[in-house]
Structure formats: structure tokens, C-alpha cells
Amino acid sequence: MYLGWLIFYLASVGSPSAAGNCSYKALIEHLGLGSGDVQMTSMRPVSMWETPTLVYMDLYVTSITEVNEKAQSLSTQVTILYGWVNDFTVWNPEDFCGIRFFSFKKDMVWTPDIEITESIKTEFATTENQYVQLQNQGAVVTSNTLAATTTCEMNLHQFPFDVQSCMFTLQSPIHSNKELVINPYSDASFLTFSSKKAFQTQGEWELLNINTSKANFSTLGDPHDQLIYKITLKRRPLLYVINFLMPVLYFLILDLASFFVDSTGGEKLGFKVTLLLSISVLLLLLQDMLPSTASDIPLIGVYCVVIFTLIGISVLETILVNFLIAKGKTTVSVKKKESSSALSDVVKDTEGSPGSETDRHEEQRYTSDALKQILGELQAAAHLNEKERKGLCWTRVATIIDVVFYFLYLITVIVFLLTLFKAWFP
């Protein structure tokens, strides 16, 4: 009974030799992958040396870890998927129980030497992928996830409302385009959609799109193929608007409002100087944010410097107005004191004049002196009125200067902000 079941089982699965063709081991031995053949591991897998090896690549951006404006560098995590054609790894799936693809160690087969030319530092984000996938048509596919720091020439003219474009250039440093032809596998829209779907960080930067293009470069020999990925990023400016742009704008608004403060005291001048010092502190923060080697002056620097200059001119205008008002007040107060002292002398002389018991001649002499002093006092009063008019003239000039400067200052601020807004958002 048991012998009958054994005969039935062997008949259903076939002989051991036939079953061996259904294993990966049999297929590897058939392809010669485990023999350590130099042709399989170290040389381009082509039957004729004139035939170039076709390599198809995709690059996906999965996260943006850091954008360093001072160092002009971009740190990202990317996944590079690439495949190529191997002429020596083709088999008929029907000879191996329908096996159409399988995975094996990467060191058992030749792999193309593709690198990122802009790379400053590149390492595996996770453990290096040790396997490749082989398909029955001869296609070999593998992928790696890399943490790459690359150079990126940035234009910070519109910071913090800027859009940056960084390049990833994939090429072979050894093989020319007669030996290795690099082509994109997916189009730009698919790469952009897949990268956004797999994006792992939602930080300061937003991924807009990924574009692909091909180019050639040549050194001393034949030209080499280049596959260029253009990564377009947009900065999220909310943090800079809240922490930097809005405080500077508030200081400017406060300076405009300070023109309604009374200029007779020193509070207005002290308030304006405080605003000027506050903007100076914010300019120190701006120095830490922007690189010193920027080719164009960033608009945010123009924004801060112009507002700092306007408030500085406003402080100088306040000093001038206070000087004119103080000069007018000093002139009036000095002349009033002189007039009061002269009047007191006249009164004392009149009270000290001789009474009825003195001689009439002496009385007339004292009366004549009193009349002369009264006449002198009237002349002094007329002179005082003239000085008061001059003092009022200085005050009137200060008021006119203050009003005219305020309207010119307001118009300048409005024109500057509108011009800057058009430059920031063309």
C-alpha cells in the first residue's frame, strides 16, 4: 500500500534529474554564474565588443535633509534604479519549469560603474543592496538608496521666496558612449509623481518637479554619455516672513506713527533711536542666513538696508526739528527775563522817588527819569515782540519741515514696498 503511494508520487513529480531543472541552482549552473568566470564578473556582457551596453536608469528623490546656502550644497536621500542588458544571461523559461526571473548576489555578475559627478559625499542610506534581479531576456535590474550631498549653484536673489534647481549628473567615468549608452527609463512626469508620493519629509523645502535630459562630455578620448536630472525645489517662506520680514515692517510702521508724537520733549527722538537699534540686531541675524559670496544682492538685504536707511534719515530729521524748536523757545525765554527785570527796576525807582516833603524841583527830576525808563521799557517791549516773532518763525519752519518730510517719507515707503513686491513676485 505504501509502495503504491510512493510510485504514484514519483510519477507525479518526475524523476530527480528532471526535478533538478526546476531549481535556481540548476539555472545558475546553466548560465555559469557561480563558476567565477571573468567574462561574467569583470567584463562587459556583450557577444561582440563593438556592441555598446544599454543601461536604463531612474532617480527618485525621497527626502531633502538639508540645503546649505553658504556651502552651496544639497543633502538628499535618493533611490537610483538601474538595469542593463546581459547577452550571456538569456534562457528559455520552459526549460526550467517556467522560471522567468530570480535574484542572486551582485558580485556574481558585471555591474556598470555609474557615479554622481556633483557628489561631495555619498553613502548608502541603508545597507548596500547585495542582490540583483535577473530576467530571462537578459535584463539585470538593481537599485540603491543613497544619502547624497551634492554641489548646487543657488541664486538667492529672491530669498526667501526663491526656487532652486539642482543637478544630478549620472555618468560612467571609464566607459565611453561606444561602450556604455545611458538612457532614462521613465519620463519626467512619472518620476515627479513617484518622488512626491514617496517623499518622507515635509520641511522647509518642497519638491516641484524632476526633469531629465541627456548630454555628452569628452576628456581626452571618446565622449561619455551623461544622464542629467534637474531637481527643482521651492522654499517655504512662512518661517522667514514671521520671524524676520514682519518685525522689520512693523518697525517701519512704528516709525511712521512716531511723527504724531509731540516733538517738544525727547521721547520722540529716543523712540526712533530704539527702532534703529532694533533693526541693527535683525541685520546681524540676516548676516548668518545669507552667504557672503552671493553674486546678486538678495532682495531681503535691500529690504533691510533701505528700511534701516529710511529710519536713520528720519532720526536726523527729528534732530533738526528739535533743534529749531529749542532755538525758538530759548530766544523767547531770554527776552522775557530781560523785560521783566527792566520793569522791576522802573517800579523800584518810582517807589523810591521823593515824597511831598521834598523839593518840587527834585520831584520833577525824578518824574523825568521815570518817564525815560518807561520809554526805554516800551522800546524793550517792542524789541521783545520782534524776538518773539522770530522765535515763532523758527517753530513754524520746524513744523513745515516735519509735515513735508512726513509726506515725502510716506510716499517713498509706499513706492519702495510696491517695487520690492513686484521684484519678489514677478
Q: Could you please describe the fold and organization of this structure?
A:
The protein has 426 residues and is an alpha+beta fold. It folds into 2 domains: 38-236, Acetylcholine Binding Protein, Chain: A; 240-424. Helices cover 47% and strands 23% of the residues. It contains 9 helices and 11 strands. The protein has helices at 2-13, 16-20, 24-31, 38-41, 188-197, 238-257, 267-289, 299-351, 360-424, and strands spanning 53-68, 73-85, 101-105, 115-116, 119-124, 131-135, 139-151, 163-171, 180-184, 205-217, 224-235. Strands 1, 2, 3, 5, 6, 7 and 9 form a 7-stranded mixed β-sheet that branches. It has a 4-stranded antiparallel β-sheet with strand order 4-8-11-10. Helix 6 packs antiparallel against helix 7 (267-289). Residues 1-19, 334-340 and 346-356 have low confidence and may be disordered.
